[in-house]
Each structure stands twice: as C-alpha cells, then as structure tokens.
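To the structural biology subgroup,

Please find below the input and predicted structure for Ring-hydroxylating dioxygenase, large terminal subunit, which we are adding to the shared reference set this quarter. The sequence is reproduced verbatim from the submission form. If anyone notices a discrepancy with their own records, reply to this email rather than editing the shared folder directly, so we keep one authoritative version.
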Amino acid sequence: MSGFNSIEDLIRYDKSKGTFRVSTRIYTDPKIFELEMEKIFYGGWVFLGHESQLKEPNDYVTTHIGSVPVILVRTEEGEIVGLVNRCRHRGSVVCLTRMGNSKFFRCPYHGWTYSNDGRLVGIPDREGYPKTFDVEDLNLTRIRIANKYGFIFGSLAEDPPSIEEHLGSAESFLRVLGNKYPKGIRLLEGYMSAKIRANWKILLEGSVDHYHVPFAHESTTEALKNVVGRRIDLRAMNSVAHIGNGHQVLIVHRETAQFGWEDSWYLRESKLTDFEKLWDSQNKFRIAIFPNVIIWGPNAPDRFIQIIRPISPEYSELTTYFYLPVDGPKEYREYGIVKKDRWKMINLLHSPAGLNQPDDQAVWEFSQIGAGNSLGSNQYNDLSRGLHRENEEWRLKRLENFSRVDRIGAGTDDTAIRGFYEWWAKLLFGKEI
Ligand code: FES
Ligand SMILES: [Fe+2]
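Predicted structure (tokenized):
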C-alpha cells in the first residue's frame, strides 16, 4: 500500500465516471492526524468561544486549539485575551474548570500563580531561583485572537492569514447571527459534552447532511410524523453548499418570506440591512465553519453552537452550547418548539438521552468502526452523491449577493463535503484535486 503522501491515493476523483471517494485512512492514520494538527489547527484559525461567555471582568472559559489547551478570559480591564493553558514550570494545565470567574490561575502542581492576563506573579519559595532568573520570560503564552460579531477565533500560527481571509463568505452568516438582534445573542450557561469514538471529520460530514435524517433519526421522524402528520421529505427545499475555505452550509429554503410572530419588533430594531433581513426571512441555515464549529442560524428552533475538538485520529469531543437573543419581547427570548420551556426542547433532542444526538453519535461511531485501522486494506467511502447535479441555477440564485458559492447541491448531496475535502487536501498537501 502506498504512503499517505500520495493525495491521489487518499482522494479518488474520477470526473468521467462521476465518482469522488476518500480512503478510510484519513480517519485513522496517526500521520494524517499529525499533519492536520500542524497545517489546519496550528496553522490557521480555530473557533474558541462567544463573547457572551465573558460578560464580566475575570470571566473565563477553557477550550482547545487542536490538542493545545486554551483559556479565553476577560481581564480586569475588560480586554478579551487568549492564553495557552499550560504552566511554564513543568507544564501542568493551570485552569482545570470549563468556565468561571477568577483574577488568577494558580497551578495545581507547585503553586506558580498567573494573573489572568498571563503574567507570572507568584513563585512559591522564590529564593530557590537566582536573582537573575527571568520571571517575565515565563508568562503564560498569549494567543492571537479575533472577535467577529461576538464569535471569537484564535490562532497559534506566527503569521496566519487575516481572519477575514479565513472566514471569507462565512462572515455573511456570522453577521446575521451577530446583528439580527440589536444586543446580539447570549450562550446559555449550561453545555453538553460527549467524547465520541469517531474522527473529527466524520462529525463535520454528518453535520451538513440531510440524507441520513429519516434513517439515522427514524424514531424522531416517526414521532414528528405523529405531531405534524407527515414524514421528513428527502426532496425538501434544502441545499448544501461549500462557500470556500472549507466552510459548509446546509440551508432550508422557505418558499415565501417568514418573519414569524415577532415581526414588528425585529423589523424595527434589527441592525441587519434590508437585504439581509429578507434573506434571513427566506432561509434557515446551519453553518460548519472550518475547522471546528457548527452553528445553527437564528431561525432554528434549537439554536446551538457545537465545538468539535479532535483528540486523536479515532476520538473527538463534541461540546454543545445553546443560545438565545439577548433582547426582544419575552416570548422571543424564550422561543423554542416547546415555548417557554426551552430546556425541554434541548433535552428532548440533544441530551445524551435525547432523540437526535445519540443517533448521530451512534452512526458516526459505526463509520469509525467500519474504517478499521490504517494498517488494514485501503477502503474507500463514497462521496459522489449529487456530482451530476451541482450548481443548479435556482440554488445559486438563493445565495446571490449574500455569499460566495464554490459549489451547491441538494441537501441530501455530498456536494459541500467534496468542497471541504478539496480544501483539506490543499492545506495538507498543497495540491488541487
Ligand atoms: S507545573 Fe506548574 S507550578 Fe510546577
Ligand atoms: Fe443527525
């Protein structure tokens, strides 16, 4: 079997046959995982958190860039900074909790203490080091961060592309999320986190895929049928698109504009342009921003933000936060399928005992099991669906003047995923497919 350096061996795209296939080694090979960390997670921008998680001075959340633990914190002065969560003494993490409020981080190992802007301010038994010992050289490592409409991204790279370059057209979707409500959105404090035995790309593939819904989520669709009187329609007006730079969107198009019962308030107060308001009223979207965050747009009943953390080739962590508008009429702030009881909705679908999330986790793990390991024979997954019907005119029109479209297809097609893999291959191997 040839080595992974041959991209042609990992992705087999045959235009004449209309096939696009990826080797299952991309989900299992430690060398590929290492390359992904270097080129994607440490070489570019990664989503870290939302500014509403850092409302007060000294609020912090912890997260990761690839396998590097990170703290995102609002300092006493109100500045948001990113720090590597790693003591400069002997490398223990200095902050152990997922979120909280603290002026200092004291390392649990030998007690070195850092202020929350990263300065090393306390070394127990300082006399054990010579006077010439340079304490300033041992501050927590700062991370470059960028805040786009409240969404905070971080980069470990020395010279990354600008955040605008990285986001490209994903910025249009973030604008809708950030500007639809005059005071923006806020993440609810609770979160759900699961360790899943599946490669991080399998999680991303499954997040912009309408094809699996009636099958993997059969129990949900059956229950829904009893409520709304019909089954999920695989030919519904959904599209998936790759909008460049690995970013994928799943869009549910509405036949007519729908503003909902909160219209008058929203139309009066929103910071969106008239064009953006119209677009938002005609489309419901889910965006997977490369490489690690999936966000349901504001028109979804279960508005969530999911962060994917790659742990190893075969393991990932998925953390789900839910969000609501900060302002607006009371019902608006609490809007959900089960009105006034949003947690019911969230638990019903997305908790470990919910209807949807366990289905997804199960099928993702089944795919990982099917991939075997990288020492096995070379097997291929098929991502050809919809190759013959990309870029239909009416779909392109739906995103006109709103977002760049690299390619677009039906919601059940693999169109966006193919775009994702072409971008992935370019970053890893510097080659076009
Ligand atoms: S490892 Fe942090 S104080 Fe020793
Ligand atoms: Fe699903």
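Summary notes: Residues 87, 89-92, 107, 109-112 surround FE2/S2 (inorganic) cluster (ligand 1) (CB under 6 Å). Residues 75 and 363 are 42 Å apart (CA to CA).

Regards,
Lab coordination
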